[in-house]
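Cross-check.
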Amino acid sequence: MTQDPPLIAILDDEPDIRRLLADTLEDAGFRTASFGRATEFEAALRRMAPDACLIDLGLPDRDGLALVHRLATQSGAAIIIISGRAQVQDRVTGLELGADDYVIKPFDPAEVVARIRARLRKPARETSRNGQTASFAGWSADFDRYVLTAPDGAETPLSHAEAEMLRMFLDSPRRLISRTQMLESLGGTAGDSFDRAMDVRISRLRTKLGEDPRNPRLIKTIYGAGYIFLSEVGWS
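Predicted model, tokenized:
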């Protein structure tokens, strides 16, 4: 059976931008669904599950950052902000709230396509890791459902960004991962905003894993070098 191309949801109140993005993405082989208002977009999410969402922050009927945060905690879709807000603090805030990437208007449509592909590209895995569920230290992570399950059975949702980072660690257990390697694996852009976003995601993962920030058991910081995930991992 042929798999449908990835579905990209576009939320922007400017018709010309919606049309430009939709035409470019469809030419690149994606399916698209476009919306001019947040209420239309949220209603559509009840009947569709996009693989990625392009979200403008300047919406007429909703705070774009609040919408990004809700999507990050309730959806497994990759989230890319497309905004005219070019200040570093705007980018940092968007990434901290759960966005995977941030594109500043005006933009090159080909760059947006490249960033979507980077976000949707699954990391290559060894044959022993060809599953979507990982088990480690009594925990399990289901990357189909974006759910983290504690040893006592309690379930916690993972945002796409958190799941992406956790998978990076689980694919390379007991190996040092430098910040440069993290940047390459997560498809980010070098700079203070992405560095801070990585730190925030690691902090959130540690919290969800019940880590003591002063003495983490699973995600260990090697100062000046990077991070090591300190557990064996099984895939199914």
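The domain at 133-235 is CATH 1.10.10.10 (Arc Repressor Mutant, subunit A). The first helix runs from residue 15 to 27. Passed to J.P. for a second look.
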